[in-house]
Amino acid sequence: MVPPVRDITAQGYDLQFGTNVLGHFYLTKLLLPALLDGSKSSPDGWARVVNTSSAMAGLGKKINFDTLTDTPERKKQIAWQLYGQSKLGNVLFSDELARRYGHDGIISISLNPGNLRTELGRSLSKFEAAVIYPVLHPVHLGALTQLWAGTSPEAVSMNGKYLVPWARVGKTRPGGDDSSKLSGELWTWMDNQVSNF
């Protein structure tokens, strides 16, 4: 979480976006045939994809596509902006997956697991850690929302929803209530990026 801005993936993508969003998109794309088949043989008729986002997804309502690869524009950003953008990307990807495949038996849910005392903050400055760590929850609570989204019978009615701690539908959602245009643009961009992998 929030590594130095100079860090990029081997393919030249912003490290946070490449790791948090593009990698998840590619894995999901590779698994789509199994997910579609699995929904047909599942006892409840559904396969589930759960994308973990963050409260930081609310930092912005757009994706700055000029910052997703190693560009001068990306280097002008601060690490927290890039992290928040990657977490917004998780929500938008999940939304678009729900739109495209919900009618085919795939439930896609994005969520904020809560602000937790984990090692994800190892790149934080001492000042940031001193401010943030006192208000974080114990790490064992972090799995509650993901487990509920992935296993609860009630979650089958949550396709396209954004959940907050502890397994509740968020009152507001990152990207705004109608982010379908942006989620479609992001999907197309990611699909183009992974076409040569």
UniProtKB/TrEMBL annotation:
Coiled coil: none annotated. InterPro entries: NAD(P)-bd_dom_sf. SUPFAM superfamilies: NAD(P)-binding Rossmann-fold domains (SSF51735). Keywords: NADP, Oxidoreductase. GO terms for molecular function: oxidoreductase activity. The keyword Oxidoreductase applies. It comes from the Eukaryota. Belongs to the short-chain dehydrogenases/reductases (SDR) family. This is NAD(P)-binding protein.
